[in-house]
TrEMBL record:
<protein>
    <submittedName>
        <fullName>Uncharacterized protein</fullName>
    </submittedName>
</protein>
């Protein structure tokens, strides 16, 4: 074998090794990128889960607040109705008393005129 043939084979071997190293580096980069993407996807999924938990908690708080406000409104309505009924009864009683007093006064006045 000549020195040129040996040199060509050596260059060819080095080129093949370099191509293998480059391919290995490319694959390592792809794997690294893939692992980073997978990690990001896991983190995103965890964040979505936490967001859903927080949303559930906030929705529950809002529901309880609305129920409390509804209960307060209903209690206030009942109180107002009770007050209205009692106030209406008082007004009716007062009107009846006034009417009875007027009748008494009229009868007394009529008797005095006779």
């Amino acid at each position: 074998r000549s020195a040129d043939a040996i040199a060509r084979e050596e260059r060819k071997r080095r080129a093949v090794e370099k191509a293998k190293r480059l391919e290995f580096a490319r694959l390592a980069d792809e794997r690294s990128v893939r692992l980073k993407l997978e990690q990001r996807e896991r983190e995103d999924a965890e964040q979505r889960r936490l967001d859903a938990v927080w949303k559930g908690m906030l929705d529950e708080q809002e529901r309880k607040r609305e129920e409390g406000l509804k209960r307060i409104f209903e209690q206030q309505t009942v109180r107002q109705e009770a007050y209205g009924k009692s106030a209406g009864a008082e007004m009716a009683e007062r009107a009846m008393r006034d009417e009875m007093n007027m009748l008494r006064w009229q009868t007394t006045y009529a008797q005095q005129r006779e």
